[in-house]
Amino acid sequence: MTIRKLTTNDKKSYLSLFNEVKAGIDPLWFMPDEAEMIEFLGQKECTILGAFSKDGELMGYAAILAVSPEIEDVKQMFGKTGAVCEVGLAMVLPKFRPQLPIARIYRDLLEWARSVGFETLIATAHPDNRASCKLCEYAGMKLVATKMLGKYLRNFYTLEL
Ligand SMILES: CC(C)(COP(=O)(O)OP(=O)(O)OC[C@H]1O[C@@H](n2cnc3c(N)ncnc32)[C@H](O)[C@@H]1OP(=O)(O)O)[C@@H](O)C(=O)NCCC(=O)NCCS
To answer: Alpha carbon of 152 to those of 29, 40, 45, 69, 136: distances in Å?
Structure first.
C-alpha cells in the first residue's frame, strides 16, 4: 500500500470512489459540496491523502480543508480566531474496511496541518455515523457540541494543534 497526496490526475479515481461510497450511506451524512473538493486540489484550500493498493487502486482517502462552512461556524460558536482547518471527507471502499489504516492517514494529515502552521483542527460528523465519529476520537479530537448545521445534524470536534 502507498499513501500519497492526490493530484488533479487522480480525479477519475477520486470521483469513482466518492460515488460508490456515497451510494451506500445516508445522504444526510454528507455535506453537498464534498465531491467538489477535488476542484481545489493543488491549492491551499484542500490537501487530500489517498491510499493505493499494490495494483494502483485507490482504496480510500481523507482531507484537510482550509475553507469550509463548518470552519466559519466553529469560529463563531467557540470564539476561535487564528488558523483553523478541518479534517474530513474520510472515505474507504467497503471492501477495504476496516483494514485500511484511515486513522493513520488522519494522524498524518494532522501532523502536516501542524507543520504548516494551523493552530486548531476541527471535524464534524453525523452522530449516527459511528465509524466517522470514532475516527475523530482516535485522532484525539474532543466532542464540543452537537447541533444543526443547516439541515445537517453534526457532532463538532476540535483539537488544538
Ligand atoms: C468513515 C470510514 C472512512 C471509516 O473507515 P474504517 O475505519 O476503515 O472502517 P469501518 O467503517 O469498518 O469502521 C471503523 C470503526 O467504526 C465501527 N463502526 C462501523 N460502523 C458502525 C456502526 N454502524 N455502528 C457502530 N460502530 C460502527 C467499527 O466497528 C470500527 O470500530 P473499531 O475501530 O472500534 O473496531 C468508512 O466507514 C467510510 O468510508 N464510511 C462512509 C463514508 C463516511 O461516512 N465518511 C465520513 C463522512 S465525510
So the answer is: 8, 23, 22, 12, 18
